[in-house]
Amino acid sequence: MKPPQKDRLTRLHRRYEEYFSGRPAVSFALQYLDGTQILLGPSSPVFRLVSRNSSGDAALDSQDRLVIGEAFMASAIDIEGDILVGMSVRGFFSDRHPVAWAKRFLPRIAEGRLRGDEKVIAAHYDNDADFFLSFLDSRHRCYTQGSFAGEAESLEDAMSRKLTTALDSLRVNPGDCVLDVGGGWGAFLEFASRRGLHITSLTLSQASADYLRSLVAQESLSTATVVRRHLFDYRPDRRFDAIVNMGVTEHLPNYAATLRSYQRLLRPGGRIYIDALAMRKRHHVSSYMSKYIYPGDASPLILHRFLREVARSPFSIEAIVDERENYYLTCKAWAQRLDKARVDVEARWGRQMYRRYSAFLWGSASGFWTGHLDAYRLHLQLPDRGDAGRY
Questions:
Q1: For the chain, how are helix, strand and coil distributed in percent, rounded to 5?
Q2: What is the phi-psi region of residue 388: left when phi exceeds 0, alpha when psi lies from -120 to 50, beta otherwise?
Q3: What does the alpha-carbon distance between residue 169 and residue 182 come to, in Å, rounded to a whole number?
């Protein structure tokens, strides 16, 4: 595969000038299999995209973000240098895939929201739990952001602080009943159960449900219950004193329906803790993410739309807290831990799996670092009167 011709180089340099107009310039290089290197930017490259075979050459020539991501997964391209900075300029490459974008909505169109959600959740979370545990914190196994006192703090301590903050915000007492929306690998379930609360964890993932039930049995968490059911379809025989949702709002993009479910499940006067990654535009997710990480129409929280629905509901807002820095530090720690476990991860789940999630975690870290991604936590309360009004 020959390197791009002169007109191609001209277009590349013009694209560089357009992309970095109004933003700090980052110099980087594209290096082909024969050693040819194209330098973009005014100084020495901070990182290089290095082709390892003819497929890598073709991916570099495509200037397409999805194609380059797939080449990285297949080891046809490597990133040399500062990967965090490298991921931060991935928007330089095009990402126009209308067919792939439309396919995101097929599961819910073809099978309905509940069944479609189940398939979408399974695609991500029904991997071997040990794979996720290879990079999550070892104390709580929490798959959302921690709460860091400083950049040097351990991920474990940041997660303990986050869980304490969440529990304190709910203002519950031993013996109270709390609904955990999206149980994951039992971080909140175990943390709150050990403090005398009755926890019901909802999950759509069979792998998560199996893990949680095993955890409940092994740790003798007698006040914990695991239910494999969609939030919208869950009909318990009593209301809960509080609800916690850590990182699941992204999978519940119908905010009105979600808030109606919260109202149905929460007692008057009860509180809700929510945290979520966020963006400014709905469904503004890369083709790589929607194809290989979170298939389906999952969407980061759109804060202004969510707040609009809260304003129409009976809920009051007790607090909104910016969590972007915390999520950046968390994703960076996860990416570093996955890289450290690379040999074992590749041996157990394959090189492609390792590289798929390395790109995802470093890409997420760079998204929060640059402000492309946001994150928030919200504390809501249902008024303490009758049925708190109809919504």
A1: 50, 20, 35
A2: left
A3: 18
Q: CA 332 from chain center: how many Å?
A: 13
Pairing type for strands 198-203 and 224-228 reads parallel
pTM exceeds 0.70: yes
SS3 242: strand
The torsion of the CA quartet 323, 326, 332, 337, rounded to 10 degrees, works out to -120
User: What is the maximal distance between C-alpha atoms in the chain?
Assistant: 74
Reading the block at residue 252, the tokens are 């519940």
Distance (Å, whole) CA 240 – CA 125: 26
Residue 334 is encoded by which pair of tokens? 């996860």
Residue 204 has phi, psi (to 5 degrees) of -100, -15
DSSP for 347-391, written as a single string: HHH-HHHHHHHHHHHHHHHHHHHHTSSEEEEEEEE--SSTT----
Per-residue pLDDT at 111: 59
Structure-token match 């490298």, residue found: 86
Closest CA to 226 of 238, 237, 241, 215: 215
Number of Cβ within 10 Å of residue 249's Cβ equals 25
**Is residue 96 very low, low, confident or very high in pLDDT (cuts 50, 70, 90)?**
confident
366-375: pLDDT as tens digits: 999 999 999 9
Q: What is the mean pLDDT of the chain?
A: 91
CA 144, CA 34: separation in Å to the nearest integer?
43
- The percent of residues above 90 in pLDDT, for the chain, comes to 78
pLDDT at 105 over 90: no
- Going from the C-alpha of 312 to that of each of 257, 260, 304, 308, the distances in angstroms are 12, 11, 13, 7
| Cβ atoms 358, 339 nearer than 8 A | yes
Total Cβ atoms within 10 A of residue 329:
23
The separation between CA 118 and the C-alpha centre of its own chain, rounded to angstroms, equals 17
β-partners of residue 198 are 177
Under 8 Å between Cβ of 136 and 334 = yes
